[in-house]
Each structure stands twice: as C-alpha cells, then as structure tokens.
Amino acid sequence: MTIDKKLLRNGPYADLFSQGVQVGNTLHMAGQVGTDAEGKAPDSLVDQMKNAYQHVESVLKEFNCTMDNVVEETWFVTDMHECMTQVQELFAARQAIYGKPPEVAQTLVQVVALVDPSFKIEIKCVAITD
Amino acid sequence: MTIDKKLLRNGPYADLFSQGVQVGNTLHMAGQVGTDAEGKAPDSLVDQMKNAYQHVESVLKEFNCTMDNVVEETWFVTDMHECMTQVQELFAARQAIYGKPPEVAQTLVQVVALVDPSFKIEIKCVAITD
Amino acid sequence: MTIDKKLLRNGPYADLFSQGVQVGNTLHMAGQVGTDAEGKAPDSLVDQMKNAYQHVESVLKEFNCTMDNVVEETWFVTDMHECMTQVQELFAARQAIYGKPPEVAQTLVQVVALVDPSFKIEIKCVAITD
Lengths: 130, 130, 130
What we know:
130 residues, alpha+beta, homotrimer, seven-stranded mixed β-sheet, CATH 3.30.1330.40
C-alpha cells in the first residue's frame, strides 16, 4: 500500500532521515538539536534550546505551519540538574518562542547522551497541520 | 493556519504545558509521574506507577475517555533492575487499572533522571478519542 | 466511548502489551529489540538493529504494511559511542532494509538500559497504514 507522504529532507543528514514527514494532517518531526548556523552547539543550555526551536520552526515553515501547530513535544536533556537550575529562564525563553503559554503536551527526561557529546538538548515534536 | 485544539491545562505546571492536547481524534498527553495528592512521590515504584496511571485517567476523563482509549504508552523508568524485579507486581497492578490485558503498544526504557530525583517512573500516553 | 482497534498480540509478552495497535490509519508499534529466533540478542549492534527491523517488518506485515508506511522512528541505544563508530555500517544496513533513503523522521538518544542488559537498541516506530 502506498501512502502520500510530504517530506522535508535537507541538512547534513538528508540521506539518513527526513526532518519532517507529513501524512494527512499529522506532521512527525525529527528530534532537533541546538546547533547554530555553523553546525556548532553553544555551551549554554538556554541557547541550545533556542536553536533547537529555531530548527523546529524552520521545519514547520516548510509545511506551512507555525509553533501553533505543535501538539506534543519531548525534551531529551543530558543534565536535569542544569535544566532545573535554569528552568525559569528556559521556560520564559520557550514561551517567547511560542508567543503564549504553550498549548502543547510535554515530556521531559534526562538521557545519557545525544548524537554529539556537545549536545545538551534534543526536542522531538508532533504537529497537526490543519 | 489555525487548528482546533482542545486543551487541558491544570495543576502546578499549568503555565508551562498542557496535560492533554486533542486535535481531531488524537489525544497527546504529557508524561505523568507518580505524585500523590500532596504532590509527593511514594518510595515504592508500584505505588508511583499506580499514581501515574491515576493522573493518566484524570486527563482521559477530561476528554471523555477511559484507559480503553489508550493506544500507545512509553514508560521512562530510572531503575530497570528494580522494575524487572517487581515486574509481575507492576504488570498485575497495571492490568487491574486497564481492566483487561492492555490493548496498547508499549515501550520501556531506563533514563538517567526524571524532573525530580524522587520520581521513578514517567508514563507518556497517546489515546484515540473515538 | 469505544474505539475500533486492530491489535497484534503475540510473542512472549502477549499478555502484557500489543506489538501493534491500529486505529484509523495510524499504527503505533511497541518498541522492537534485537532478539533472534531463539530470543537471544547477538553481540553486534548492527545485527541487533537488523533483528529489530525484522520485528518491525513482521508487525507491519500483520497490518498489510511495509517499511514504506513508517513515518517516524525513535532509536534508543545504550552506547552512543559504539553507535557513532559504526554509524556508516548501521545506516547502510538500514537503507538496505528500507530499500531507499528512508522517508522517516528520526530521533536517536542514548538511554541507560533497555529491558534486558544484552539489548543495545530498541526501535519504536509509528506507521500510517494508507
């Protein structure tokens, strides 16, 4: 059975997976990390989080969506203690990105490691396109 | 593009995320932890699991759903060894909550930590509302 | 409210969860690990990955699906360093399984442990059936 997928494949890992896959009105996005324009992750967790959401927004845009369309997000962090000590700054920055109190279900867990040792956060989102 | 979300925002983190977000017939729920009515997590993993499912049931109820509606659950535990040594008791208690052999896809992994060091389990569910 | 679920329950854990749950055109699959026909996990991560995808394919087949139907996968590995040192071999083997550059969103994180200490990878997929 063939399904009608809309795909976004770009960036350094375009041969390995899609940044977003839409079927019907559901958009599954690859986990996004905190790399900047040079592909490097800044030291600050807050900055990495902002970068990760910028990547999320870039993917959403390709599917004519905005942060409003996100319904679920999972944060994989590598240091929960660091995360909790900066939690107010993190969530304030996140609310600025969403533009309002996020209308999204969240899960937050600490994993051992992400793909690169410099990565402190990976954000995996599901969006509904319409 | 605006989508029609049904939201549940309550509890101590109501400003940060929604406990449940429904669009169409899919309900994404925030990961639920094992806190009791006072917001404390009991020492026992089984008790934390029961509490977490009580939270799941509370969220489901707000969307006119029951455990029957859950199609997928991920368990994030902080001690797989403890989990496996209590696996029969855990799954018996879980089956009592579902009321029958669970009709749900499950994933179970050990993470480093959840939001609070006292939390031993977080359960993230997806439900279909009708 | 009752929903119309199509379930696959088989294998050693059939009483505990379903390998796949389909409602509407969405199929949620249980995380699949790298066990062989005797239920043992080979030492090689690549071999475990191949076995895990064989289990994924078996589940998909029961729902009249193939790897083409997978839209999202999360890899939980227990050793990111091992994973990255074998990344070319892993992704080449994976592409052979998909039969083309995967049209799938991916997330990859290192957890502390999976259900059995011998397991090095668990793959959790979502598929769209038509």
